[in-house]
Predict the 3D structure of the following.
Amino acid sequence: LDRTAGKSITAARVPFVAFASLVLVAIPLWAGGCTVQGRAARPSIVLVTIDTLRPDHLEAYGGPRATSPRIAELARWGVRFDYALSQASWTLPAMTSLLTSLYPIEHGAISASRKVDPSVVTLAEALRWEGYHTIGVVSHLFVSRRYGFDKGFDEFDESQVLGPHAVTSAELSRIALERMARAPRPFFLWVHYFDPHFSYVRHPEYGFADGYTGELANPVTSTELTTALLAGRVTPRDTRFVADVYDEEIAFTDSQVSRLLDGVAEEVAREPVVTILTADHGEYFMERGRFFHAHDVYDELVHVPLIIAGAVPPALRGTVVAEPVETRSVARTVMALVGGEHAFAGRNLLEIAAGGHSPPFVFAEGSDIWTEGGGQRAVVGGDWKLVERLEDGGYELYDRATDPAEREDRYGDDDPAVRAAQSGLRRALDGFEERKQRRASRLQLSDEEARRLRALGYLR
Ligand SMILES: [Zn+2]
């Protein structure tokens, strides 16, 4: 990643070539051509969230392997945010932030026994108030009805919330397309894909994990991996295999996202559609002696892909935004795109892409799934990232420009520039604490639900 361009927007625009698949959805609103009863047609919105998707495993973000040609194509024709932070490192708080614009410290859905509070306005709800037909198609308990995520949806399909080994992306795309085809316009379609989450199941047609002869089996399960890890039996080759199978899951998911986007383009060829693609969080591959996610706020877990494509202003197509942004700004951006009234927090991401100011600080929070306390908080300002460890009250400071892997802790360094960055970020985090509300309602998990969450890698 070109960190030297960190202060400015890199407008690497691609020549306009008529790619049938994507450009279909990328036209008239901004050209002023498409009108319905005298006013510009409001775009339908497709929100694709892919669970556990690390940007450095995508070629659109400089990943070394062709895991995701469709996501790369989307980025070529859309706006790609190079450094988007999710507001949390596991699904429930991260997705609540994405769909409500509130930080976890504000919405409070930070453990498995908290659900989104009914008083919180969601993106689906705000779009319904604007006359949108809203459809949610999900595949994870943490974004299901049980946790309050059906709020604001005219149609909500959670038939693909299945066990850890289930491969659901193909069925999700099928269900989403079927419902979309029948839906009145404009519509809001949210599809939450889950396959890159544990367990990892091989998709041998991609061959990334071929040739492995170690002791891990297919599928790679959280129990098996944890047992091997605790016994000190995980070798670098095993870790490589786990990441290779993860890449096969990404490739398969990309092919199903492609089916979804082709289907939408075919169905609404003459109407504007905006597609937003992002993730809830990343994943560890032993970078810090662990697999899985949650609790921490290092970039392996909170740096996520974020792409906005389709009916965006033509001048923005192919733009890469280097400044830090937050995924909770998606709701506000969508409201701006549809001319809607509800005032979500955050920034309009397309204004930032057009040269507007990015937020001076972006935040992420990590909590433990089974308890309410502990975890970490992070604030990023410019090239610096401050991590607060809530258990011991300690801090860590990283220079993103020279140390993007966050290895060299500079907290307490004597260099005056470091001290200045440090105190600015400390003030920002202290101010952040004042946002604390914890609005979420309580929820009692059944033994079966808790067992299923553990099987997904959320170990106690
Ligand atoms: Zn997740």
Residues 51-52, 90-91, 197, 280-281 surround zinc ion (CB under 6 Å). The mean pLDDT is 90. The longest strand covers residues 303-310.
